Amino acid sequence: MATTLSSLHLANLLDYAACKGIDRSALQRLLYTPDADRTDGKGRVSRSEYCQVWEQMLQLSRDPHLGLHYGCFLNLKALGLIYQISLAASSIGQAMRLLDDYLNQTFSVVSLTSDVGPEHLVITLQSDLPEGPVRRHILDSVLFLMYRELGVLIEGPVSEVQLPHDDLSEYRRLCQSSVVRADAHRLRLTTGQVAGPINRRHLRQIETLLPIFLQLLDQSPNPQTPFAQQVRTMTLSLCAPELPTLDQVVAQFSLSHRTFQRRLTQENTSFRIIADDLKRQLSHYLEEGRSLRTQDIAYVLGYSSPSAYLHAVKKWRTQPFFDGM
């Protein structure tokens, strides 16, 4: 059993903590080398350090669905991995084997097994961590990261999500597939989806959008609007590659819609202003590149039709760029 995992997984977790407003430095003080650069793909951290950070985040965030929300947050960070896997795979089955290899090499706390039946493939996640909240939330996070990854690669939604929890309401709210109670963390796909080709249309969108997503994340934050900056970063991170809804963003902060909007109002902005500014910058980038059709741009930006998107573009051309961030 490997006792270390890739430092990138810890770096992602610390980024998420900062995005939720948790004091990153308090978490780093739990580590043997608090100031080390963990963005180097060759770095390693101990399993115990990783689990200690999870335990502290559960206490500080008071989020009963932290694992689920973290798995959703990893969408943007996973897009690069999905794209790399897709370049090396010609089918979903082959992509699954590459993903299994990736977990074995970089994330020893979770493993997966696949059971192929006449009609379905069932993927089961396992962990040798001690039973308890940390184990449960880590399995939740990996399951929903895989759920979103597979949703990009396959044609159609994952058939079913299975979870060993009594209350599944939040999972069902954030998940388009059927969510049922079971004795383990599982995903179920049809054999047709597994045997079928990778969804190349989604991958073209990822290839086109990933550079601008990363560029927008790297923009300097405005210290005068700390909560608005958290919301902006969270919104970008939840892209898969389409932009998230208001409900999906609010869920990450464990706030009511009213409190969420009030905190933005106190910084003289709103979720609509933040989302429209991101849509405008993405639209400008995509139209310059001319690599996606208008209907694909409309879908990624969350418009109900190409005509609704074109109406928004016409309005943007008469307005200056918003710089309240």
Automatic annotation (TrEMBL):
Sorted alphabetically, the keyword list is: DNA-binding
Q: Mind naming one GO cellular-component term on file for this protein?
A: cytosol
Q: Identify a single GO molecular function assigned to this protein.
A: DNA-binding transcription factor activity
User: Which Pfam family is an annotated match for this chain, by its short name?
Assistant: Arabinose_bd
| Domain HTH araC/xylS-type, residue spans | 242-317
Cite the InterPro entries for this sequence: AraC-type_N, HTH_AraC
PANTHER family xrefs: HTH-TYPE TRANSCRIPTIONAL REGULATOR GADX, HTH-TYPE TRANSCRIPTIONAL REGULATOR VQSM
- The identity of this protein, by name, is AraC family transcriptional regulator
